[in-house]
Write the structure tokens for this entry.
Amino acid sequence: MQKITGRNNIEVLYSSHHLSHAASSFYTSPFKTSLVLVMDAVGEWESSSAWYGEGSKLTKLWSQNFPHSIGLFYSTMTQYLGLKVNSGEYKLMGLAPYGKPKYLHQLSKLIELHLNPLIGIKLNLEFFDFISGNKMVSNKISKELCPIISNLKIKN
């Protein structure tokens, strides 16, 4: 948390996006100590972070920065399947446990999951257009996934 002196010498407390997520989880929980994992699209530059909460203190243990983001991966898949970004991701997350890893090989070309938390995830940015384009998916993703996903399009 950071104090910023604004106009008329009014102090404003600034909290980062991921600290706010971690705090809202930890401070409202019944636990005295806890590991808190925050994973979303992006807040400032962070896309994922891990925190250690003890008593009234939260300490950041690790973070991963944009563009490598599990949240942006979900947003991209949301758009690719025809759902609205920042609205339909919960549908994919809710359906994910019911799936089978039938297309794991194809999807592993888009995203690498690392057991080492210092690495986290890595998106293959050739398949994503959210950095420089006006959509989430690049044309390359359609060439890779179109034969397997074209029949799975979900209607809003």
About this structure: Residues 72 and 124 are 12 Å apart (CA to CA). The chain has a mean pLDDT of 84. Residues 1-65 form one domain.
